[in-house]
Amino acid sequence: MKRYMTIEEYFKTQIVDKRDTRRRKIINHLIAILCFIIIILSLYTIFNWYVDNSKIKHIKTKIEKNINIKSINLDGELINPPSNINSNYYYYVNFPFIDVDFSSLMAINKETIAFIHVNNTNVNYPVVKTKDNTYYLKHSFDMKKNLAGWIFMDYRNNEDNLDDNTVIYGHSRLDGTLFGSLRNVLSNGWQKNKDNYVINLSTIKDNLLFQIFSIYTINKESYYMMTNFENENEKQEWLDTMKKRNIAPIKTDVDINDKILTLSTC
To answer: 165 pLDDT exceeds 90?
Structure first.
């Protein structure tokens, strides 16, 4: 038998429907407000990212225009030369060093301790060092707040007398600034060019050439950032680990007597 709704039931239903409609409208308005806030925050983040990168490019341009950075040929000291005369070591020792006017750089930032250059990348920057590994994550070369940061050496390292492993850090920026262009080293084209396997590092004291022996990507860890080793076995184990991680067709001789340079980015 068909049942009909009473007047009382009908009005109760209308009240419930109106409450549900009002609730849905409130939820929709809250969702719309939340989306608007997310969009504003995203635009603000993108704007700040663009401004920070622009400032980094401006600083680099200023450095390159006003600082005397030129390649020079010097009869350098052979450090730990291999016995194999066919080693690439003897090919790279003929590469030019970089002459840097550190007095001009230190006039801008007194914490400047080196200059680094990596072939066929945008890495051509002064290196700074301070009392920790956090300051230059959010400050640029002019020591002003900048989330792009700058290129800096691990505070535990000694730039005057290099440690077993000298670590230099820099953010990987999407526009290729700072260590952003280090992603080039993962490409086959970059790896096929033998001339790319040398890194220039000039300090106030020395002009140095480092021969690359390992290129790799790794999940977040601290092992590769060890700066000194307690004994030869520990260093050899570390070197073996780094060599096993290598993804490039590199055949560089490396042993426990070598000073290692590690470039770290994320």
So the answer is: yes
